[in-house]
Amino acid sequence: MTRIWLFLTYIIFAILLNSVGTVILQVQNSFSVVPSEAAVLEAYKDLSIALTSFLIASFLARLGYRRSVMLALAAMAVTCLAVPALPHFWMTKVLFLMTGISFAVIKVAVFSSLGLIAKDQKAHVSTMNYLEAFFMFGVMGGYFIFSAFVSPQDPGDLQWLNVYYLLAGLCALALVLTMFVDLDESELRHSAKPLTKEFSGMISLSFQPLVVVFVMSVFLYVLVEQAIMSWLPSYNSQVLNLTPALGIQMASILAASTAMGRLLAGWVFRKYHWYPVLNTALVLAGVLILLALPLAAGTSSEPIAAWSQAPVAAYVFPMIGLCLAPVYPAINSVVLSALPVRQHAPMSGLIVVFSALGGTLGSLITGRLFEWVGGAQAFYGALLPLAAILLALYGLRHYVDANVSQQRRADHSGAAL
Question: What is the pTM of this model?
Answer without folding.
Answer: 0.71
